[in-house]
Amino acid sequence: MRFELVIFDWDGTLMDSVPRIVSSMQSAARDAQWGDLSGPAVEDIIGLGLPEAVDKLCPGILPEQSAHLRERYAHHFVHADPTPMTFFGGVEASISALRQRKALKLAVATGKTRRGLDRIFRDTQSGDWFHASRTADETRSKPHPQMLSELLDELKVPVERAVMVGDTEYDLEMARTLGMPRVGVSYGVHSVERLFASEPEYLAHSVESLFEWLHRECW
């Protein structure tokens, strides 16, 4: 058993939530009178904490306008946007299979807020899948590695015995900073070229291939 901890990103890695994020952010930008945002521009910032994402997406935005945009984003994402949002096919069964390995710990490191992640945990009844989690509003945003360091400390796992799984360079770069093994998934938002630049140990092109690799390394 090479790894005793698997840390998952959420959006674009476990959950097919990117279309909802994009459309909610586009609506929020219009509400805040920032203007139109392109889909690829919004996809590029997925994974960052919301304040950092807005700063990068809307350079020069004033603090009051940024706060309004973020408030409207939360409204659209939670209440107004009807875009479907579910786990990628195979995720639930694959996580369940991993959990059969009693010595293996699972965690989440996400750009969501704690309130947002807890809401998703509750709505999908997935909170008890994981031994720990960190969100961008209770530590530093990706790509800073603080959330990974905190998870390692909480779960008492050495860095070489953990692996980070994510669909963006922000996920992989925070792991690389710590010298943590990392796996990219190409079915999320960042291109294969961007993921390869962070030197992942493996690049999965499907949920099936991701969990096949994890089973080999964690069993």
Automatic annotation (TrEMBL):
The keyword Ribonucleoprotein does not apply. SUPFAM superfamilies: HAD-like. Keywords: Hydrolase. It holds the Pfam family HAD_2. Coiled coil: none annotated. The keyword Transmembrane does not apply. GO terms for molecular function: hydrolase activity. This is HAD-IA family hydrolase. It comes from Vreelandella vilamensis. The lineage of its organism: Bacteria, Pseudomonadati, Pseudomonadota, Gammaproteobacteria, Oceanospirillales.
